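Supplementary Text 2. Reproducibility record for the structural model of the 460-residue chain.

All settings were left at their defaults, and a single model was retained for analysis rather than an ensemble. We include the record here because the model underlies the residue-level annotations in Supplementary Table 4.
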Amino acid sequence: MKDFIAEHKILVAAAAVIIILAAALAGRTALKDNSSPGETAYVETVENLTGQNASLGLINRFAGVVEPQGLWTVSKNADIEVKEIYVTEGDAVNEGDVLFEYDTTKYEEDLEQAGIDLDRLKNEYQSAQETIAQLEKEKREASSSDQANYTIQIKEQNLTLKDKELDIQIKESEIEKLENNIENAEVKSGIDGIVKSISDGDDENSDSSAFITVMKTGTFRIKGTINEQNIGDLTADAAVLVHSRVNDKVWKGTITKIDVENAITSSDGNGFGSGGDSAKSSKYPFYVELENSDGLIMGQHVYVELDLGQADEDSSGGIWIASYMVDQTDPDHPFVWKDVNGRLQKQEVRIGEVREEIGKVCIVEGLALTDSICIPDETLHEGMKTAPMSEKPDESEAGEGRTDYEFSEEEEFSGDETMEEEPGDGGAGSEETDITELEEAESKKAEELERMKEQLPEEQ
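Retained model, structure tokens:
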């Protein structure tokens, strides 16, 4: 054996070197494969993470429009003419101000005639009573054969008496109504407000039942709509924020009513069949009473969202972020995973106020809006490469059930394809350069072993 080694020491030495290189290549490849999962941590800027909650989809917003707090309407009696209208559209009125006056001439004439008719009916009633009394007297003095005739006459007079009683009641009611109309000939406003409209009765599209409409002044209210799919997000008496669509103004208010009795059904345009239920969606109106309406105008369109305290965050003196972005495993030393020059690093932070109801914490020290952080994960470690969240590959591109760092056995050992690496520093000592050299050595090793196989049998 010693003689064999001595005679073939060159070949043995070459084989040893090749074996060492092969082991190094295998270890290097294994290192590369083992570091693949979680190799890159994808981060997002704190500035983006702390944008408006609604824009991040955390809190639903609902469309709304500014309308008067209330309307007061009065209908016109079609049986009588209006003598005079004392207001015009746009006039400001107070409760009790006269809006218009009826012409009571007809009422007064009718009242006079009704009085005459009532006196006549009362006289006829009294006459019927006297007739009945006389017939009853004669009946007592009449013979037995005439008793039946008197009985019939008395019954007839009693029926006449009942009719007169009813006629008198009707006439008295008519007189009372006429007197009331005359007394209330002047129609007064029931609220403080502005005259919104006066109907002349010629507009077919107007509400014929409303002659004059007064819009309540003071604070406005918001009329919003909510879809049947998320109607459970709102409740009566819930505090809300009202956002302007044109600037950053915000108003606070309270939901006073969700009108589930008056659904608004409309087509969503996505149905494939005519009349299909799937093509329709119901919405329900809800109303918001505002704390103040400064800066709002009639008909202005707004957004409404639940008030969970997010409007007060700016005055807290810190940065509000989702609580799940902070690793609080050790409550005394909470930290975030922060990007520092393309590498991941732990950044200890100090937490101020905590709002569990909205899942947010206020970072008062250790974090800036310009920092980039990622969601804590047990696979993270300091020194990991980082990349913006916008560069994260779409999982669908890697195939269902696979990530960018998972390979089949065929892909791992085929040698035909190589995994795309994140850009390195490009130096001579880079991982990509080392792997190439080892692959070349592996190729030489295979050729040398093949030559050894050819030579050993001949020399033995």
